[in-house]
Amino acid sequence: MKLLLLPALFLTVNGCLRIFGKTATCACKTLKIDRSNMHENEVKDNALYDMVLATTMKAPEILIDDCAVHVYCGGGSELYIFDTDKGAKIGDYTLDGSCDPSQQKWQLDVGNGIEQYTVLKAVCALKGTENKCYPESPAAFLFAYSNDLDYSDVEEVYSRFIYGPVFYWEKYVIVATSRFDTKTKEEIMFFENNTLGDSYRAASDYMNKTRMDPSQRFDSSETGSDVLDMLERFIDSDHYSVCASRAFIMMKRSPNEVEISKIVRKIRQWRIELNIAIEHPSSGGLHPETMYNLAAKTNGYCSFAPEIIEAMYTLPAMENPFTHYSLNIKVSGTGTMVLPSITLPQTMSLELYLAVQTTTTSFQNFTIRYVNTNGFSNSFSRNREQHLRSGAMDGYESNLNSFRTVRFLPFAEASTYAMNLEYSYSMEDTILFRLSSNTPIDDWLPFQD
Ligand SMILES: *[C@@H]1O[C@H](CO)[C@@H](O)[C@H](O)[C@H]1NC(C)=O
Ligand SMILES: *[C@@H]1O[C@H](CO)[C@@H](O)[C@H](O)[C@H]1NC(C)=O
Ligand SMILES: *[C@@H]1O[C@H](CO)[C@@H](O)[C@H](O)[C@H]1NC(C)=O
User: Fold this and answer.
1) Mapping DSSP to helix (H, G, I), strand (E, B) and coil, where does residue 159 land?
2) Backbone angles phi, psi at 395, to 5 degrees
3) Boundaries of each DUF7154 domain copy (predicted)?
4) Which residues pair with 334 in a beta bridge?
5) Which domains are seen in the chain, by residue range?
6) Which ligand is closest to the CA of 333, given by its number?
7) Mapping DSSP to helix (H, G, I), strand (E, B) and coil, where does residue 37 land?
8) Which residues have a Cβ under 8 Å from the Cβ of 293 and sit 6 or more positions away?
9) 141 or 262, which is more confident
10) Is 386's C-beta closer than 6 angstroms to any atom of ligand 3?
11) Is a pLDDT exceeding 70 seen at residue 393?
12) What is the CA 3 to chain-centroid distance, rounded?
């Protein structure tokens, strides 16, 4: 508790102010804030508000005794207070203040003096969650799909998530769904059930009811997909489960946008892992490479295939929510390069996800080799013919532009692994090299442009 030195004028023995011998009532306003009402109490152009918005928050304790107020958090969180147009960090301390009944305004000891607040809105932010969430933060699994796809394919893809993996999803706590590429934009649905299993089933029932709406399809193949707008609305929903979530996005239509810096910034800030599955050829839109570039800049992944279900097979599995290695590699012609090594601090299994090209034309072949400090080595190769024949399910899955293998570093010993890449391309392109695991990472990987 901080020592409180309020103007004695306001307090009398019974806690009320006496003006002209008459007892006035203290009725200053307070409001407990948490994630559920933070957005509707926005403080415009306030950096402190923006900062608290991205934290894990809970409502504080507010004790009112006549005109006196005490507000505190406890439990490893710090107190922030806001008025309609300003705010202050109180931190670990208890906030003390009193209501001035003549104005019905708070006089609050904000640490460096007394300030007047019209409304005392108080919120607790969990320490260490400022400006970020953690790789292990409980988050949403967003299942988003274009209205251009066949519903039976989307249903099939969704049903694959239940086989076993749903029980390994500890990181994910809620399913959200979104149908995009519709003339009238549709709400993003968060299924707030008691368990992840119930949320999964509630989402399934909802999608089975709404299916696809052909009357809502865009009339022209020149109309671009509104997938970027959908992602922005997912983030702006401000749902607690957005930060550190995984967005699984099934597309058939390409966006028309090329300029993506704003959405890249948002996805990075909210640490959303993009898993993009694209059915090829597309049903419209001009720029398929936009999604690939978006995945590249956000440590995400992007896979093209003739069938959406096949595109899913080379995307990071739900059992592997943690990306331990993420590299975008610019390649052109034929060459060999040394890749940054990876050091495993403990035994773990890492699966390899490699998106070899932006479109579906340039890639010829690749070989990845690694050797660890104990001399253990292995290699993986793929050529163009193997990519064009997609759909194999033998632990070395390929698609038009991507490859994954569960056998990259299974039960790998703690060691440093030196890696190199041999490649052949007919044009300049970018490889997305990702290693994912169910072993958590301590902190997020840096992003690449
Ligand atoms: C999920 O919650 C909704 C809304 O409360 C409810 O109507 C639905 O029956 C629940 N579904 C499951 C599978 O529990
Ligand atoms: C979808 O709904 C139909 C009835 O409209 C039902 O027969 C079918 O079992 C449902 N499918 C799933 C996967 O829930
Ligand atoms: C990769 O492709 C290039 C060019 O077609 C060829 O010269 C090379 O032998 C191929 N490498 C492998 C390992 O297939």
Assistant:
1) helix
2) 95, -5
3) 328-437
4) 424
5) 8-126 (no CATH), 139-437 (3.40.50.410)
6) 3
7) helix
8) 260, 358
9) 141
10) no
11) yes
12) 42
Give CA separation, 263 vs 328, 348, 384, in Å: 19, 33, 33
CA distances to 100, 142, 289, 381, 406 from 365, rounded to whole Å, are 76, 33, 20, 7, 20
Best of 198, 199, 200, 205 for a ligand 1 pocket test (most atoms within 8 Å of beta carbon)? 198
| Binding site membership of 383 for ligand 3 (Cβ less than 6 Å) | yes
CA distances for 187 relative to 87, 204, 206, 313, angstroms: 32, 16, 13, 28
CA distance 111 to 88: 9
pLDDT per position as a tens digit, 395-447 = 899 999 999 999 999 999 999 999 999 999 999 999 999 999 999 998 889 99
Strands 273-279 and 301-305: parallel
Q: Strand pairing partners for 339? A: 419
- Long-range contact pairs involving 17-20 (C-beta distance under 8 Å, separation at least 24): 17/67, 17/100, 17/101, 17/102, 19/101, 19/102
Q: Rounded to the nearest whole angstrom, what is the distance from the C-alpha of residue 424 to the centroid of ligand 3?
A: 6
Residue 261: count of CB within 10 angstroms of its CB: 9
Residues 6+ apart with CB under 8 A from 31: 37, 41, 119, 120, 121, 122
